Amino acid sequence: MNIKSLLLGSAAALAAVSGAHAADAIVAAEPEALEYVRVCDAFGTGYFYIPGTETCLKIGGYVRTQIKYDEDAFGAKDRFNDDKQYGDYDAQTKGYLTIEAKSDTEFGALTGYINLEANDTKDTLLDGAWINIAGFDVGYFYNWWDDGIAGETDSIGSEETLQNSIRYTYEGGPVILGVAVEELASTNVKSNDDVGVSGKLGYTLGGVSANLIGSYDFNVDEAAFRAIVTADVGPGSLAVAGIYATDPSYYWSKSEWAVAASYAIKATDKLTITPGAQYFGNVKFNSNIDAWKAGVTAQYQITTGLKTLATVNYYDENNDAGPDSEKWTGFLRLQRDF
């Protein structure tokens, strides 16, 4: 018997005596399979599946910094005599984040939206959170008066346009119909925790679209109406808007009536120039005061996701009673979108 046979026999005998079995061997646990993020193309680009679910998520937003000019608009206390001092310029920076979650249901797409805004004053704000399904929007979102026309000259929206609402929108081919019930929680006409209703009629045909909205503020029993028409004309897009209100309300309080227009000219693939103007009739519903505003906005797409925008505007009332009856405003902005 050689040495090799002796060693093998001894090992076999030892295993038999100790009762060792193959099942007793130490086996390393296999690592769990990782579930990688999958692209979701059911709702367009930019969506991905939340791991372990059939819900698609999209994250976007922007980072914006700008220098704003507004004559004698920015106040600060003098550190020596505690008097209020006014300046013309103010640097501002803001971050904006949008989160959108979608999934298919028997009622169509179910969507949840969350918009968050943070600025250099260290404020973080909820700028919208709502649910959309089967044409209904329910939650905290901007109303139709927040929509405007091209450029940064017009002022055709409410002082406040973000509130808790329930809204239904029907889209049938070129026609859009909508109705909304809105909580008017705070306004400059002292409406508090009141209710308003709005209706919308829209129509699009070719390069022309028209939208009419009407709103009623139950707190002051007043109504406001606005129409916007846009059309592709020549090298750009022409927009015209008109507003009429029976008296000041949550929805409109700047003037009894107003008209505005802008023309967005696509000068190059990257440069858009938009002159604009607006006329206010019976400012603050005072028949002795009218006003007009004119300006121009230029936007340049530096590269994908990065653009700059500059605007300058002049406002003038037909009286010299107040400090804001004649003034220049504007800003220079740099924005990174993602």
Automatic annotation (TrEMBL):
Residues of the signal peptide:
1-22
- Give any Gene Ontology cellular component: pore complex
Q: Respond yes or no to whether keyword Membrane is given for this record.
A: yes
GO molecular function ontology, one term from the record: porin activity
What GO biological process, any one, is recorded here?
monoatomic ion transport
Would you identify the family this protein belongs to, as annotated? Belongs to the alphaproteobacteria porin family.
Q: What is this protein called?
A: Porin
